[in-house]
Automatic annotation (TrEMBL):
Name of the protein in its database record: Transcription repressor NadR
Domain Helix-turn-helix type: 6-59
GO MF entries: metal ion binding
Gene3D superfamilies per UniProt: 3H domain, Winged helix-like DNA-binding domain superfamily/Winged helix DNA-binding domain
Organism: Roseburia porci
Amino acid sequence: MNGEERRKEILAILDKSKSAISGEKLADIFEVSRQVIVQDIALLRAARNEILSTNRGYILQTKRGASRIFKVYHTIEQMVDELNTFVDFGATVEDVFVYHKVYGVIRAELGIRNRKDVQKYLTEIREGKSTPLMNVTSGYHYHTVLGEDEETLDQIQEELQKLGFLAELKTYEPVDFWKNQE
């Protein structure tokens, strides 16, 4: 089997799978090294296949059956704990946005999938001249988070609650404000 055929098979396996599949398992299936699988995944991503890496393995983004908006509040120093909470459950932080009474919704793409992405983001914030978007609204902000299933998002919500990061939706905040950004 050549590389192109293997990549087609990898896509087919990920498409049929109901959960993430580890690189090690894919390597065993195709009798190649894990590094070959990592390279195959990179090539598949370059071909615009949305394959996400989680702590449980690879999954097609289209297979991610659950997304949720979390309204959170914390200090800048607590950003690392907040973002690590999401990725430690294998979720992807798609964006950050705020709802400002004057300016409306201000949104930025993030695509944070793992702790390495968290560290890169925090380094860019620290070394840049800009401040986190949450500063516009005194620490209150939102994230669209993609998870494998609703149970995973429930676990994330419980952990955010324990950490004291969840914030209540106010009556002036439109419940469907994120839909206006599409």
